[in-house]
Amino acid sequence: MQQAEPFVRYARLEDACAIAAITVEYASQGIMLERSPDNIVENIRNFFVAEYNGEVIGCCAIAFYTEKLAEIRSLAVFNQYKRQGIGRLLVEKAEAILHEEGVCEVFVLTLSREFFSRLGYIDIRKEYFPQKIWKDCTHCPKLMACDEIAMVKIL
Ligand SMILES: CC(C)(COP(=O)(O)OP(=O)(O)OC[C@H]1O[C@@H](n2cnc3c(N)ncnc32)[C@H](O)[C@@H]1OP(=O)(O)O)[C@@H](O)C(=O)NCCC(=O)NCCS
User: Fold this and answer.
1) What order of strands is seen across the sheet that includes strand 122-124?
2) What separation in Å is there between the alpha carbon of 102 and the centre of ligand 1?
3) Is 2 among the domain residues?
4) Which atom belonging to ligand 1 lies closest to the Cα atom of 76?
5) What's the pLDDT at 148?
6) Residue with CA at minimum distance from ligand 1 atom 38
7) For 84-127, what is each residue's pLDDT tens digit?
8) Domain CATH for 120
């Protein structure tokens, strides 16, 4: 039976492999960092998925840095579902949760500038977010040739 609309929900442990598969697809293109199923399981409470007809078709995660600052990361939508509003649904869900938690500033490190711009994010210097740079970027294969830009939105 066809499900009426895609929807976004908190990820469950059983989604870990599906989420990992989405990140592998884009990591192989150098667009995002790959997340292993084990790593996703460890962080499962921070993940959301978009579901359609019982399948996981997109994902994103939130990471908290201070009481007021968080990041939206690991955002991806399977190729065949792009440009149908799924990415927007995922980001809006993450923003709503962050807002409820009292977070007022959310940032992304991304190559998808146009997408985040449509959602109200603006460019900002990466150095504005030192915690993030030191925590994750040191493990990134592109460390010395980073092409991502930082963008921020006040919630
Ligand atoms: C970035 C990504 C998540 C966007 O998901 P999506 O479901 O295609 O995006 P949506 O359909 O919700 O688009 C929302 C808005 O952004 C626009 N948009 C989306 N992708 C765009 C692009 N590549 N260029 C320009 N505009 C874009 C849409 O037109 C839409 O605008 P509108 O609502 O004003 O019409 C998806 O392209 C993706 O998975 N990319 C690969 C992984 C990646 O780059 N992740 C980001 C890491 S932070």
Assistant:
1) 7-10, 47-52, 55-64, 69-77, 105-110, 149-154, 122-124
2) 26
3) no
4) 39
5) 83
6) 76
7) 999 999 999 999 999 999 999 999 999 999 999 999 999 999 88
8) 3.40.630.30
- Looking at the DSSP bridge assignments, the partners of residue 59 are 49, 76
The closest alpha carbon to 6, from 70, 54, 76, 66, belongs to 54
Distance 77 CA to ligand 1 centre (A): 8
Q: Which pLDDT band holds residue 147 (cuts at 50, 70, 90)?
A: confident
Q: Give the number of domains in the chain.
A: 1
Ligand 1 pocket, residue 26 CB under 6 Å: yes
Domain that holds residue 115: 7-154
Fill in the amino acid letter for 102.
Answer: G
Whether the CB of 86 sits within 6 Å of ligand 1: yes
